[in-house]
Specification:
By secondary structure, the protein is of the alpha+beta class. It folds into two domains: 273 residues, 3-Layer(aba) Sandwich (Beta-lactamase), CATH 3.40.710.10; 194 residues, 3-Layer(bba) Sandwich (D-tyrosyl-trna(Tyr) Deacylase, Chain: A). Helices cover 35% and strands 22% of the residues. A hairpin with a 2-residue loop joins strand 12 and strand 13. The longest helix is centred in the last third of the chain and has 31 residues. It is globular and about 80 Å long.
């Protein structure tokens, strides 16, 4: 009798596990006939790491999904949750400040004290705005600073790059600072293809160029190192360069101070070399430069997928939320807890979601399609100023990264989305308007986690370079399948 009970208990457990597994599979893969054909084609093409969700915005129900809770690399689609958090925490009308201040008296055009350039996290500060501050200083009667020119960028976390595991000579991987100008880029220009005699714009003394015969590792065009207070960039005679090259600035706060000093010369204002320092409470503001409203900055960030803007908005949001300065990884953990609270009661599986920054420039971060769809629905329900969040995204056939995608008359203006791409990780998330005039949120992520891991582990080798070079073809096919899914949804839902 005992053996019989054991036998039936084992049979019951096997049946229960089988049923549970099938229920879980059904929950993960709620496919219609149209999606099934596309999924079969994707799988036959060798794509294994992919997921998608289509969610009815009105009902909050997932109407189609595949691997919806599988954590994958989002790339720049990560800018959706970080900018939504920024809008929620800071407000759509929030403006960031950059201050020009003095202490001491002005006598006969000479400031007898210090001049202060104070960055407070404007992600879009430009050279023309610096000229505006200089005009205010000129109008104040200052022609020379007798003591110190102090810059201060301590308002936010700062770093010499966004992702230290990525390509360090690419302009999308710039330094971070609360005092950043013109996206922290340095232009190298030459007039002769037979010469490596580049000149710098702006001509910063804190950045030097050194020509070398050294053979660089595969995939690298420039190599930098810190030499005392100067960032030295090596240019190799063995590399091929364009007449115009761009480099990321590694010390944005100092570089911004140096640029300000160079521009001051055009006003006939003499400034000492910039140095970092604290700002006393009793300084007098000469001018307080105000940024565009945050809502406009978010639109620019999403439309052009600007990593620097994404990170600075993200750091501003986490500072306001936590009342403290946090680095990118700490800010990522805070964003996770923010959404766990805001999306409480959803079907999101939180255990595998991980944010390492706000821009998505990292291959170790993970999100799920369910999470992205829930964030998009949450954003749609918020009152972010005069415009809905979906109107800040790129539009199919109209603007941004969606300009050339789904641009035929049948699909133009029906997809409002954010693209995301690093080598072997392609994502697309946003909103669609179907032919039946219904509104849906969607997320589609396609990865090749094995090939991505080989790049991350391989360093700068010929094998890694071959993988990177092959990634563009892989990406084109991934984007084709993303577009095929969206077309089917627009036509059939």
């Amino acid at each position: 009798m005992h053996n019989l009970l054991v036998f039936f208990s084992i049979i019951f457990l096997l049946i229960s596990n089988f049923c549970y597994a099938n229920l879980a599979f059904a929950k993960e893969n709620e496919l219609g006939a149209v999606e099934k054909d596309i999924v079969d084609e994707i799988r036959k093409s060798g794509f294994k790491d992919f997921s998608f969700v289509l969610m009815d915005l009105d009902k909050g129900q997932i109407v189609s999904s595949y691997n919806q809770n599988t954590p994958l690399i989002p790339g720049s689609v990560n800018k959706i949750p970080s900018t939504v958090m920024g809008l929620k925490v800071l407000g759509a009308d929030h403006r960031f400040q950059t201050r020009l201040a003095i202490n001491g008296k002005v006598e006969d055009g000479i400031l007898k004290g210090n001049l202060y350039l104070i960055g407070e996290g404007d992600p879009n500060l430009s050279t023309p705005e610096m000229f505006s501050m200089l005009q205010a200083l000129f109008d104040y009667g200052v022609k020379k600073v007798e003591k110190k020119f102090i810059y201060n960028d301590s308002y936010l976390y700062k770093a010499n790059c966004i992702d230290d595991s990525g390509l360090l000579d690419e302009i999308y991987n710039t330094g971070l600072s609360a005092l950043s100008v013109d996206f922290n880029q340095l232009f190298l220009v030459r007039n002769d293809t037979n010469s490596l005699d580049f000149y710098k714009i702006p001509n910063l003394s804190s950045v030097s160029l050194v020509v070398t015969e050294q053979r660089f590792p595969p995939g690298m065009n420039f190599i930098s190192k810190q030499v005392e207070d100067v960032v030295e960039w090596k240019i190799s005679t063995r590399q091929k360069y364009s007449l115009l090259e761009k480099l990321p600035l590694k010390s944005p706060g100092k570089n911004s101070g140096e640029l300000f000093r160079l521009l001051a010369e055009q006003y006939g204002i003499v400034l000492p070399g910039p140095e970092f320092g604290d700002v006393p409470d009793d300084v007098i503001n000469v001018q307080v430069n105000q940024s565009k409203p945050l809502q406009e900055l978010v639109e620019l960030t999403l439309e052009y997928s600007n990593n620097l803007m994404g990170e600075i908005i993200f750091l501003n949001a986490t500072k306001a939320f936590s009342k403290s300065n946090m680095d990118l990884e700490q800010s990522g953990k805070l964003m996770l807890s923010f959404y766990q609270k805001e999306l409480k009661g959803s079907d999101i599986v939180w255990s595998d979601i991980k944010f390492l920054n706000g821009s998505g420039l990292n291959s170790k971060g993970r999100v799920t399609s369910t999470f992205l769809a829930e964030v998009l629905r949450y954003a749609d329900q918020q009152n972010f100023g005069k415009r809905k969040f979906w109107t800040l995204l790129s539009v199919s056939g109209n603007k941004g990264t969606m300009f050339k995608r789904l641009s035929s008359p049948e699909f133009a203006y029906k997809v409002w989305a954010k693209t995301g791409s690093i080598d072997y990780a392609s994502a697309l998330a946003g909103y669609i308007i179907t032919n039946s005039h219904k509104h849906y949120a969607f997320s589609i992520m396609v990865n090749d986690l094995k090939k991505r891991a080989k790049i991350d582990e391989g360093g700068y080798t010929n094998q890694t370079l071959e993988l990177r070079n092959a990634a563009s073809g892989w990406r084109s096919l991934a984007q084709k399948y993303q577009d095929d899914l969206i077309k089917s949804w627009i036509q059939n839902y």
